[in-house]
Specification:
single chain, 377 residues, 5-stranded mixed beta barrel
Length: 377
């Protein structure tokens, strides 16, 4: 096999970036909604949405004509407005959410048919990443490991015993040309309690799972087929029909709703790790998936114990208070003597909680669904 050109500062030959842009970010309700999920918000003060930030950091790796976005039909207009140079053939629309295996697997199947032997990298639309040279260096190493036949992920060196992330337990160093940092993955660990997270960080052989996967498209599809042959069959049938507008729509309507809804961590990452075919590149760049309002508060207060305020016209008066206020209304919000408070004020819904309970916001969304209050979701 001819070795791909992986040169610092230039797009990688035969490499495609895939951006799964799905999910509503239910732990960020009522800011994040079904019609305006978190990747369509500016949550960092950059002046751009998280989706646009993701696009910009991938251009140096693959070039803007080699970035595919997988998103819901309802979000097409917003995505294309954010990414005006996104090529039409690289917009993949889901009729309904079927989780990451279907989204990433369909992208892999389409791209493998168009360009046999292509390497793809999957990067979520709603992550925050700084230290871009370190990020791009890690991706280039991951591509080299993928070329060697590994399914590869990028794990983040933990800076604290976080309980909101899954963890990767790594083992021995792998000898892979072009990927000197590559390590074998022993196993994946679910989000731990604080005591377990502290033990992981102290141990030193655990990384945060950032759900970035880089692999040859054919290898990724092969692994999906090992664990979910029926799912792979559906994805390949969709890919066969995809590039013909006359066959695409009917195929999506017939096949997509019946695909198993399951995360790629379960169909690929965990079984591949158990079989010794998964590599990880440690990432030393700043990373966050803004999983809840506690992490959003920390991100926007630069780690200080003061009050973060988001909202173009926010009117907030605070005295001896900390936490975060997100305002999308014209109301004056006054805080006096409250610590680690979370206030999210939108025109039709108000959330008040604390940083400690931020992960429980999802249960409010679940309760609203049960009660039929879907107008605010």
């Amino acid at each position: 096999m001819t070795r791909r050109r992986i040169t610092q500062g230039q797009p990688i030959e035969h490499f495609y970036s895939v951006i799964p842009a799905g999910g509503i970010g239910s732990r960020l309700w009522p800011l994040s909604r079904a019609d305006a999920p978190k990747f369509l918000h500016d949550l960092t003060g950059s002046g751009q949405t998280l989706l646009r930030d993701t696009w910009d950091r991938l251009i140096p790796l693959s070039g803007e004509q080699r970035i595919m976005v997988v998103t819901g039909r309802a979000h097409r207009a917003a995505v294309e407005q954010q990414l005006p140079t996104l090529a039409d053939p690289n917009v993949v629309l889901e009729s309904e959410p079927r989780d990451s295996t279907a989204a990433i697997g369909l992208a892999a199947a389409i791209l493998e048919r168009r360009e046999p032997g292509v390497i793809i990298g999957s990067f979520a639309a709603d992550h925050v990443i700084n230290n871009l040279p370190l990020f791009q260096s890690a991706v280039r190493e991951a591509v080299a490991a993928a070329e060697a036949g590994y399914i590869t992920t990028i794990g983040i060196r933990p800076t604290e015993p976080a309980v909101g992330f899954g963890y990767i337990h790594f083992g021995d160093r792998l000898e892979i040309e072009g990927a000197p940092s590559a390590l074998a993955v022993d196993s994946f660990k679910e989000k731990p309690d604080l005591e377990t997270a502290e033990r992981y960080v102290e141990n030193g052989s655990y990384l945060w799972n950032a759900s970035m996967f880089i692999a040859r498209a054919d290898r990724l599809l092969e692994e999906i087929g090992r664990s979910r042959p029926e799912l792979l069959e559906g994805l390949q049938e969709l890919a066969e029909a995809w590039d013909d507008p006359a066959t695409r729509g009917p195929a999506v309507d017939r096949i997509w709703p019946g695909l198993e809804k399951i995360a790629i961590d379960y169909t690929v990452a965990e079984p591949v790790a158990a079989a010794g075919r998964l590599a990880v590149i440690p990432g030393y760049f700043d990373w966050d998936d803004i999983g809840d309002f506690a992490s959003l508060a920390k991100l926007n207060s630069a780690g200080r114990s003061d009050l973060a305020i988001l909202g173009k016209n926010a009117r907030v008066l605070a005295d001896s208070s900390s936490g975060i206020v997100v305002s999308q209304s014209n109301r004056v919000i006054s805080l006096i003597g409250v610590k680690d408070i979370v206030v999210v004020d939108t025109p039709d819904a108000l959330l008040v909680t604390t940083s400690e309970n931020a992960q429980r916001v999802k249960s409010v969304v679940d309760a609203l669904k049960i009660t039929g209050s879907t107008d605010v979701l």
